């Protein structure tokens, strides 16, 4: 792994910083090549490195693999500004230049096919992964509950960025009806983001301030503790290319409710390893949460099924799928031994 130091850009815009990043990456890769290191391919992640990836591809005549984690079109439900149009054009350029394009879900496969007009045969669907051992056992964390809720309260947990696309406002709108059936419920929101003030104001308007805790940013260790004490984990996203936090909750043994959208739809099968809600529908979300809180044994069975099936998101399996994608562009039958620019 080689890190690059980005010099202060001439302009104040983020795109200027991104351009400087590409220049620094090009210099670093040239230095590595000059030192005698040889590469089999380039693996570029998202539009931020498009210029460097295209230049290195042409300079060293190497095949290019690109991973698209999300699209500007999807994040914003369309293209509305010049900056969004620029970013989307860079995403398209990267997918055009690449011999193979990796996405993390069938939803993202359909999205890039539609938005960028990519041929189906150019795409690989390789999910993100999770290591259940890093999340610990639920029993380890019960003692930390007093920091977030009363002894008899039941925790409904959200973990993620506080931006509109994560659907936290939908969760808050569902709280009054949840409390009507389960007054001992307590919503804990772990994460930070630009929508925090707006969400706090919504909490006040709904009169639920005493039943909602904004925990702010939490470390991985504290996140694991929260999973360990949660009765339900909720991910009501409006847009979600994959949903790694939902997968982490499942690997931690927590019953989950997710929006039936994006990559979350790949991860959760309704009534089998979790429950689904209609995107943006507070009534649908409330009903699913209330059902889990009212039926703890059923919730436990769903969580156990999810945990038993988590092996398909094993990192070793995902690494092998990635190597197989590399072999398709290098036409090699042996393991890659020289290296990858990524």
UniProtKB/TrEMBL annotation:
Keywords: Transferase
GO molecular function terms noted in the UniProt entry: glycosyltransferase activity
Domain Glycosyl transferase family: start-end pairs: 151-306
Pfam families: Glyco_transf_4 (PF13439), Glycos_transf_1 (PF00534)
Entries under InterPro entries matching the protein: Glyco_trans_1 (IPR001296), Glyco_trans_4-like_N (IPR028098), Glycosyltransferase_grp1 (IPR050194)
Ranges for domain Glycosyltransferase subfamily 4-like N-terminal: 18-133
Protein name: Glycosyl transferase family 1
Organism whose genome encodes this protein: Effusibacillus lacus
């Amino acid at each position: 792994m080689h890190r690059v130091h980005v010099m202060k850009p001439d302009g104040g815009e983020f795109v200027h910083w991104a351009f400087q990043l590409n220049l620094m990456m090009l210099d670093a890769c040239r230095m590595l090549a000059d030192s005698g290191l040889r590469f089999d391919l380039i693996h570029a992640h998202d539009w931020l490195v498009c210029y460097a990836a295209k230049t290195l591809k042409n300079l060293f005549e190497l095949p290019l693999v690109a991973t698209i984690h999300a699209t500007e079109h999807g994040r914003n439900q369309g293209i509305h500004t010049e900056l969004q149009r620029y970013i989307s054009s860079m995403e398209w350029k990267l997918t055009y230049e690449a011999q193979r394009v990796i996405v993390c879900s069938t939803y993202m496969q359909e999205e890039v096919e539609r938005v960028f007009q990519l041929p189906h045969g150019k795409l690989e669907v390789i999910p993100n992964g999770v290591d259940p051992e890093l999340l610990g056992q639920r029993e380890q964390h019960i003692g930390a509950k007093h920091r977030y809720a009363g002894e008899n309260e039941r925790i409904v947990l959200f973990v993620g960025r506080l931006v509109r696309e994560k659907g936290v406002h939908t969760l808050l709108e569902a709280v009054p009806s949840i409390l009507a059936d389960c007054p001992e419920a307590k919503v804990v929101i772990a994460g930070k983001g630009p929508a925090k003030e707006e969400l706090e104001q919504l909490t006040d308007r709904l009169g639920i301030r005493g039943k909602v805790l904004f925990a702010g940013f939490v470390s991985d260790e504290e996140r694991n503790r929260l999973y360990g004490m949660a009765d339900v984990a909720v991910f009501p996203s409006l847009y979600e290319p994959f949903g790694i936090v939902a997968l982490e909750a499942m690997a931690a043994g927590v019953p989950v409710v997710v929006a039936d959208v994006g990559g979350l739809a790949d991860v959760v099968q309704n009534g089998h390893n979790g429950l689904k809600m209609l995107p943006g529908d507070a009534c649908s979300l409330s009903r699913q949460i209330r059902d889990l809180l009212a039926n703890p044994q059923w919730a436990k069975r769903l969580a156990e099924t999810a945990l038993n099936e988590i092996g398909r998101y094993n990192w070793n399996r995902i690494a092998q799928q990635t190597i197989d994608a590399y072999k398709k562009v290098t036409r090699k039958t042996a393991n890659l031994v020289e290296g990858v620019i990524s």
